[in-house]
Amino acid sequence: MIAVMRDRWQGNLMLGLLLLLVLASCATPAAIPPKPGMPTSSAGSSRLAGKTAGTRLITIPFTIQVGAFSTTARAARYAERLNAHGLDAYYFIDSDGLCKVRFERFLTKEDALFRAAELQAKGYIDAYFVVQPSAGTYSADPLIALRGSIVSTARRFIGTPYRWGGASAEYGFDCSGLTMTVYRLNGLELPRNSRAQFDAGEYTSSNALQPGDLVFFATGRRGRVSHVGIYTGKGRFIHASGTGKTIRTDTLHKDYFRKRYMGARRYF
């Protein structure tokens, strides 16, 4: 009888030790590998790279830039011709005042150069540049640099006409087409429509808004997000305001926007 009890005690002890080993292995999960094809950060990465690594927006490491036009209409026609060939092209007004076109995104400079040479051989493009969209390094804080660059980029479009569903200079921008283009020019792949943009960002309270955040409104009858603008500071934002109007600056304190305000989102 004593031998039986001893055997049972030893068996329970071994079972307990086995359970402890299993629990210990569960407490330290295996590292999740990065998704194939996505850029990974290194020990030398900047603070900005560390901040953006966990957001839902994909960065644009390299893109192809073509054209240098004196009028927005010519840049728009060029972009539309590239779109007709299946390229995701968009125009922008550069800091030198000239209108240029960018399209597609690539993980490496070599991939971009290969693609550009291929398109040049087909006669789709002429001269080109491979560029890295970024806010530059003129600030000691890369996040401040990015915010300032987003706002200054948006200001270039003030005066451009509004057009529902538009994202070109000749035919105009709608609200989400403007925000998408401005973010792309700063290296962030923002979704195309305002509801998807609202879902992609991180909640930001109205008293914590910073330049470069997006502000959203319900301007339709359903009470859902249907309009978006780029916050510039001091209660003001830039947006493509509506049919028959141009891109302009407005204030969140206006009754119209205050009553329809749905919240703000941050992406970096």
Features of the shown structure:
268 residues; alpha+beta; Alpha-Beta Plaits; 8 helices; 36% helix; disordered N terminus
Overall CATH architecture of the largest domain? Alpha-Beta Complex
SS class: alpha+beta
The backbone outline, from C-alpha atoms, is globular
Low-confidence stretches: 1-6, 13-54, 164-172
List the helices and strands and how they pair.
Elements: H1 2-27, H2 47-52, E1 58-59, E2 62-69, H3 72-84, E3 89-93, E4 99-106, H4 109-121, E5 128-131, H5 142-155, E6 167-168, E7 172-173, H6 175-185, E8 188-189, H7 194-200, E9 202-204, E10 214-217, E11 227-233, E12 236-240, E13 247-251, H8 255-260, E14 261-266
Précis, in short:
The protein is α+β, with helices and mostly antiparallel strands. Helices cover 36% and strands 24% of the residues.
Question: How would you sum up this structure, described in words?
Answer:
The protein is an alpha+beta fold and 268 residues long. Helix content is 36%, strand content 24%. It has helices at 2-27, 47-52, 72-84, 109-121, 142-155, 175-185, 194-200, 255-260, and strands spanning 58-59, 62-69, 89-93, 99-106, 128-131, 167-168, 172-173, 188-189, 202-204, 214-217, 227-233, 236-240, 247-251, 261-266. It has a 6-stranded antiparallel β-sheet with strand order 9-14-10-11-12-13.
